[in-house]
Write a structure and sequence with these properties.
Largest sheet: 5 strands, parallel
Structural class: alpha/beta
Distance between the termini: 44 Å
Number of strands: 5
Number of helices: 15
Length: 294
């Protein structure tokens, strides 16, 4: 029987942090890789996946985050039974929550927040989020929504926020663990725009047409029985990964771009570069010593 790995794509502001906190209570940190916040990985000294050893990767049963990519499936878990899962949230509600989170974060960073710019520069963020991370599985759909649907049809589980308990039940049965079902809501941003310019809801809806189509498609779709999802998982994993051509360069380019964006946003880029250079220097010194001993 192949190793089992729960691979959860955390779409921002879709209760992913709450779910992760729930599962982490019963899964050792050495068996978890998360990259919802690359900045936090840097702050707490957690390695990104491309720096993990083969042994460390083999131990993983929970892979979770915003910055997961189809190449991770191909490169690191090609023969695993991977339960590929995500949760969707009503697009307007999700977008408003994200705006509020960005507003709160901008205050912490001491930077200006232009809500009109955020709205105009963020059309259909859920669809684009999915397509960037699973370009092969997106196929040749004629619209963003169709490409995103193509991707999520390859997932084992796609639930809406209103049906989050079903995801918890599935994860427990797949990983054979028992967790406390009381969700402690983490990282939630209640929509509160007292200090933000009045939001144009109609403009937001116009910018989210494809996201709304995607959400309504899966809201209407009947979910498979949990037992059937688990039974078909191994075969579906093999078929899914066979569609992806391995390219480590694509994965590195994707992750390094995300690393840079977060490091710049949190003003730690120079510090991170210094640490990397220090590590390189230390390794070079070790190599010189070893060469001198041979």
């Amino acid at each position: 029987m192949p190793d089992k790995t729960l691979f959860f794509l955390h779409i921002p502001k879709c209760a992913g942090t709450s779910l992760l906190s729930l599962l982490e209570r019963d899964i050792p940190l050495t068996r978890t890789y998360k990259n919802t916040s690359i900045f936090e990985n840097f702050r707490y000294g957690r390695e990104e996946i491309y720096n993990l050893s083969e042994t460390a990767i083999k131990e993983l049963i929970l892979v979770w985050g915003h910055h997961l990519h189809e190449q991770m499936l191909k490169i690191y878990f090609p023969s695993n039974a991977v339960l590929l899962s995500t949760i969707l949230r009503e697009p307007v509600e999700r977008f408003l929550s994200h705006i509020n989170y960005d507003f709160q974060t901008s205050i912490k960073r001491g930077v200006n927040f232009d809500v009109e710019k955020v709205i105009s520069e963020s059309p259909n963020p859920m669809c684009n989020f999915l397509i960037e991370r699973f370009p092969t599985l997106a196929g040749s759909g004629s619209t963003l929504a169709q490409k995103a649907i193509n991707i999520l049809e390859e997932f084992d589980s796609v639930q809406t926020l209103n049906n989050i308990d079903r995801s918890i039940e599935l994860f427990q049965k797949f990983l054979d663990i028992k967790v406390d079902l009381n969700i402690d809501r983490k990282n939630e941003s209640d929509v509160n725009f007292e200090n933000i310019k009045i939001i144009n809801i109609e403009k937001i809806k116009e910018n989210l047409k494809e996201d709304i189509f995607l959400y309504e498609f899966f809201e209407r779709k009947e979910s498979s029985k949990i037992e059937d999802v688990i039974l078909s998982n191994e075969e579906k994993s093999i078929k899914r990964v066979s569609k992806i051509t391995e390219n480590i360069g694509d994965l590195r380019a994707f992750l390094i771009q995300k690393v840079k964006l977060e490091y710049v946003a949190w003003a730690v880029l120079e510090k991170a570069i210094e640490q990397k250079l220090s590590l390189i220097s230390s390794i070079a010194d070790e190599v010189r010593i070893l060469n001198a001993l041979t």
